[in-house]
Design goal:
By secondary structure, the chain is of the alpha+beta class. It has one domain (about 1-220): C8orf32 fold. The protein has helices at about 1-5, 10-20, 40-65, 70-85, 90-100, 105-110, 120-125, 130-145; strands at about 150-160, 165-170, 175-180, 185-190, 195-200, 205-210, 215-220. Strands 1, 2, 3, 4, 5, 6 and 7 form a seven-stranded mixed beta sheet that branches. Helix 5 runs antiparallel to helix 8 (about 130-145). It is globular, with a radius of gyration of 17 Å. It starts with a helix and ends with a strand. Residues about 1-25 have low confidence and may be disordered.
Length: about 220
């Protein structure tokens, strides 16, 4: 489950956390301590490889419709073409809505594993759970020109359900929005009270928000 991945951080980052207390609730807070490179995040490490490898296939799909035969990939290609040059708020709303149309399935049911982060190419042709939605939105927004510094996949505790969950946090100017498979529209991070972040990742770094205080089962 996602929370098991969070729990692997306990021993390795407790010193970092003690010396640099994290601001638990605020994505992109410059005071957040970075998770040291020697701390392995196995699922994210796998996902980064998938983002690179499957990103090549996504780029081919954007260049030529013949490179993306699956219907949802063709629809994704059309979406990206339509959104180039559109206002950023429109891009967020439509990317969130489109990716959320992919059917949900728990990792254990699809892969026989309690936790697997599928790459966007694989996910868009099939099904997935929360972190897969976040990865696909991340990859799509990168291809629409969003800078990596303004995107973070955020692993959180869903305090309403008592579950671990993942969303995509996006910074637009002074505002931060959450793209969530549980919500049709982007959520203003400043207004939400549901999610308490554990850690965040993007292609360049990883940030610690807080250490888990209890075991939560994986969410969607």
């Amino acid at each position: 489950m996602l929370c098991r991945l969070c729990l692997r951080l306990l021993g390795a980052v407790v010193l970092v956390f003690t010396l640099h207390p994290a601001s638990a609730a605020v994505p992109f807070d410059p005071a957040l301590p970075q998770i040291p490179r020697e701390v392995a995040l196995p699922r994210w490490d796998e996902a980064r490889i998938a983002l690179d490898a499957e990103g090549v296939r996504l780029d081919r799909c954007l260049r030529s419709a013949s490179a993306c035969a699956a219907p949802r990939l063709r629809a994704w290609r059309t979406l990206v073409a339509e959104l180039r040059g559109a206002p950023a708020a429109t891009q967020l709303r439509r990317v969130n809505s489109f990716v959320n149309t992919v059917p949900y399935v728990a990792d254990i049911d699809r892969y026989g594993r309690s936790d697997f982060w599928a790459g966007p190419w694989q996910f868009l042709q099939g099904q997935g759970d929360c972190e897969d939605y976040a990865l696909a939105k991340y990859a799509t927004l990168r291809r629409l020109g969003f800078e990596v510094d303004n995107l973070r996949i955020l692993v959180v505790e869903d305090t309403w359900r008592g579950l671990a969950h993942a969303v995509l946090a996006v910074r637009l100017g002074k505002e931060i929005w959450l793209l969530d498979n549980q919500h049709e529209e982007p959520i203003a991070a400043a207004a939400q009270r549901r999610y308490s972040p554990y850690y965040a990742v993007n292609e360049e770094s990883r940030w610690l928000h807080r250490l888990p205080t209890r075991t939560s089962s994986g969410g969607g």
